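Example 3.2
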Amino acid sequence: MHQISLGHLVQQKSPNWLHLLTDSERTKDIVLKNGVESINQEDVMEIMEAVIAEYAKETIHH
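Structure, written as C-alpha cells:
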C-alpha cells in the first residue's frame, strides 16, 4: 500500500490535468494498492473523477 496526495499523483502521471483540481482536491490522500508505478493515465482520470464527485457532494447550492 502506498499513500500519496492526489496532487502529487497527477503531477507525476498527468501534469497537464493538475489545473482541473481545486486546492482541497489536490491535498486529498489516495491509497494505491500497488504503488504509483502501476497507475496509468486512465487510472488517474478515474481517481480524479471520484475525488471531484466526492467534493461536489459536499458543495451546498443556494
